[in-house]
Write a structure and sequence with these properties.
Shape: globular
Structural class: mainly alpha
Radius of gyration: 20 Å
Number of helices: 8
Strand content: under 5%
């Protein structure tokens, strides 16, 4: 998305407007598809998987509520910001606010917490970068280093508790697996 906006700077006014219009249409379509998918309990995903299974010799399990939007959530969280720039240029700040609130609500109600956290963090970074881009770069770098160190240390603690026979209650299996992977990697490093 950002590459498209940067490339559009080299175009004439008509070309730039077409790129921005395409991004706005894509953003609106993305939000609409997510809303339909969430409101319909995964109707679109389940239909696509059923069609795939009917058309091919391979079968796929229909998406469960736990991974209904999966990678699409991360894509929407990342694409929201370049789309917001295009929306601001063409439609103004009110439309940007409405779009970002819609994305935030969709991120909140979908089952993958990491996409919502990414969207909130990106909101904070975008707010800082709007006024102080260099400060935002430093904060992002420090934040990533700090978060990675913290996750590795937390992983080691969680794995040690499991190995001692004192598991962490209510920890989803996927988190437990990730903690084991991170602790293993940290141990090997």
């Amino acid at each position: 998305g950002m590459l498209g906006l940067v490339a559009a700077r080299g175009l004439d006014d008509g070309g730039r407007r077409r790129v921005e219009t395409a991004m706005i249409i894509a953003a609106a379509g993305f939000v609409l598809l997510f809303a339909i998918e969430l409101a319909g309990g995964g109707w679109l995903s389940r239909s696509a998987v059923a069609l795939w299974n009917a058309a091919t010799p391979w079968t796929s399990a229909p998406p469960t509520s736990g991974n209904l939007l999966g990678r699409g959530s991360a894509i929407l969280a990342a694409f929201a910001w370049p789309a917001a720039v295009a929306i601001r240029r063409r439609l103004g700040w009110g439309a940007v606010l409405a779009f970002l609130v819609a994305v935030g609500v969709l991120m909140w109600f979908q089952p993958m917490l990491s996409a919502f956290v990414a969207f909130v963090c990106a909101t904070l970074v975008a707010a800082i970068a709007w006024r102080r881009p260099r400060l935002a770069m430093v904060l992002v770098a420090l934040g990533l280093v700090t978060a990675n160190i913290a996750v590795v240390r937390l992983s080691e603690t969680v794995v040690a508790r499991y190995e001692a026979g004192n598991p962490v209650p209510d920890l989803p299996g996927s988190w437990r697996e990730r903690f084991h992977i991170l602790a293993f990697a940290a141990d090997k490093i």
